[in-house]
Amino acid sequence: MDDRDAKVVALPSLREYPGGTPLELRAVRPVPWLALLLMAGEIDLTNCFEMGSWVESHAADRVVVDLTCVELLAACGARRLAEAQETFRRRGSEMRVVVSGDPLQEQLLRVVGSFDLHGSVASACRER
Description:
Residues 24-128 form the STAS domain. By secondary structure, the protein is an alpha/beta fold.
């Protein structure tokens, strides 16, 4: 699947947490079996729990979490993503994570969980 072939079939959502760090969250369903979750901003203690709940609320055979526009990923956010990944595994779904190329972000994700990391959205969305 080419990134240009994806079409938005769900209205994007945008949230800014009161008193916390701004985090933009958008969900796209290019095909019925795939949920593409786009995040931009910072994931820290002020928003990681709600972010994790938002991620878990998207049911699909494959969930792709795109962190390429995340400027800061705190350890609590990485842990919350690991919990979300375990939730998807119990449901029989898979979660793939697209990283920004930031070596610290990638190292944190590798330390916290056993994520299926990808360098691009196209790679993560591609069927096996």
